[in-house]
Amino acid sequence: MNKKIGFTCAYTPVPLIEAAGFSPYRVFPETKAPDQAGHLLHDNLCPHVKKVLDRALANDLPELAGMIFINSCDAMRRLSDAWHEARPDDKIILIDLPSGTNSLSLDFLSKEYERLFKTLLKWNNIPFSPEIISDKIKETIAKWNLLAASVKKIEETMSRDFFPGYASGLQQIINTVATQSIDDAYQMAQNKIEPEKTAKKGRAPVFVFGNLLFDPKVYDLFEDWNLQVSGTDFCTSSRFVTQVDTGLDDNIFKSLAVSYLKQTPCARTMDTSIPGSIAQRIVERAKQTNAKGVIGFTLKFCDPYLSRIPMIRQALKKESIPFLMLEGDCTTGSMGQQQTRIEAFTEMLEV
Q1: Do residues 184 and 248 lie in contact, with contact meaning Cβ atoms separated by under 8 Å?
Q2: Coil/strand/helix, residue 326
Q3: Out of 36, 68, 229, 246, which could bridge 7 as a Cys pair, Cβ 3.0 to 4.6 Å?
Q4: Largest Cα–Cα distance of the chain, in whole Å?
Q5: CB 259, CB 242: distance < 8 Å
Q6: DSSP class of residue 241?
Q7: Position 226 pLDDT exceeds 70
Q8: DSSP string for residues in 8-75
């Protein structure tokens, strides 16, 4: 069993972790550890960051060979700082992430990914060589792309028909690649591509987006509330499994940078040439997945997402697509508290 490398962000390239001889372990903000993060961070901070720090303070983690942080927002940067205090013996690397997608940003991120890979090799006492890049990285990317293609097929099935438990099954696959291995997740995906159950009617299809929604049980709750999740856009859902086009550039790190920065946009990443692109993307994805409505779910104090909700709301209104905005923490319970609002929203949708 390979040693585990912890990480917290979808911009972390899992193929590099596995190519360096480690297993990935995404530290989800799911814990029964006591609330201690306030000793190191402000209380009015992203609950994702605080719960991950609670896990570190309570040693509610497997043995980690190192921790990768992505400087995606100020709260995540503060988590990196606090981790030094909570677990001073851990090996840590902070990768800077550009907010734009222009050529300079791509060049910068490619160098950051190369720095990450060299650091991972050093942590595993493996010398850096061109052969590792040409062989090992490309091998893991090839496996990753097979998984991404399987996930896409599952998504296409989700957008066409309602199969009970299908959405939660997809989330289980994504959680597996985030916390175990590409191979394990790919095997699960192969068993999931062909639905085991018969398609059913009577559920209103909705597209759900936001920053984090990683608990498979939440997708089962949507079904209990007469909704069919026909598509998702979260950094913990299929957006995390980004297809990597190795033909984009001779430099494998540049290919990774282009694939992740352009194909995996979240609210903190902007295409300055198209300022409202995130809103347009939500509209397009809603239409592609045959959704009758859209539900947004963001964490409290997540300024990047909350600041973009008005333009998303306006774009959906222009297309006459009903929209429900929810805000909460990282628990299934917080979603359960929204049941009345979700059920009222469901009644608005045509089935």
Answers
A1: no
A2: strand
A3: 68
A4: 60
A5: yes
A6: S
A7: yes
A8: --TTS-HHHHHHTT-EEEE--S-------GGGTS-SSS-HHHHHHHHHHHTT-S--EEEEEEEESSHH
66-85 confidence digits (pLDDT tens): 999 999 888 899 999 999 99
Pairing of β 92-96 and β 204-210: unpaired
Average pLDDT of 38-47? 84
pLDDT at 289: 94
Residue with tokens 């469901």: 346
Here the tokens at position 120 are 């991972």
- Ordered domains of the chain (ranges, CATH): 4-131 (3.40.50.11890), 138-348 (3.40.50.11900)
Q: What does the DSSP assignment read for 69-133?
A: EEESSHHHHHHHHHHHHH-TTS-EEEEE--SS-SHHHHHHHHHHHHHHHHHHHHHTT----HHII
The helix-helix angle for 252-263 and 103-123 (nearest 10°) equals 120
Sheet holding 23-26, edge to edge: 23-26, 4-7, 64-71, 92-96
Q: Are 111 and 104 in contact (CB under 8 A)?
A: no
Number of residues that make up the chain:
351
- Of 22, 252, 234, nearest to 141 by C-alpha is 252
Region 99-106: mean pLDDT is 87
Q: Does the pLDDT at position 193 exceed 60?
A: yes
Is residue 351 over pLDDT 60?
A: no
* Two structure tokens written together for 98: 């550009």
Residue 193's DSSP bridge partners are none
Q: How far is CA 138 from CA 22, 132, 142, 256, in A?
A: 16, 9, 6, 11
Q: Which sign, positive or negative, has the C-alpha torsion 136, 137, 138, 141?
A: positive
CA distance 330 to 302: 12
pTM of whole model > 0.90?
yes
